[in-house]
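ok so for the tutorial part 2 we go from a plain amino acid sequence to predicted structure tokens. step 1 is just haveing the sequence, like this:
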Amino acid sequence: MYFALCLFQNPLGLDGLLRLLKSTHYLPRCAAANLLPRCTSAANREVVLSALTNALAEECTVAARSSISNALAEIKRGQ
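step 2 — the prediction. this is what the tokens look like for a chain of 79 residues:
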């Protein structure tokens, strides 16, 4: 649902995905990280990069670390 809101440029979508990066379960964190590059624009790029960087610093699961690292790399190279 958050991703659909992002596609329609509704700010609630991005907010929801960023909140999922702090989920207690690793699967929502992975899903959010995998979707964030497609929701990132020039206007929100710094916010998304900051949230992903913070999430990576706190992440302890291999799967979510991989998803977050891949998302950061994709956004940094310009999607």
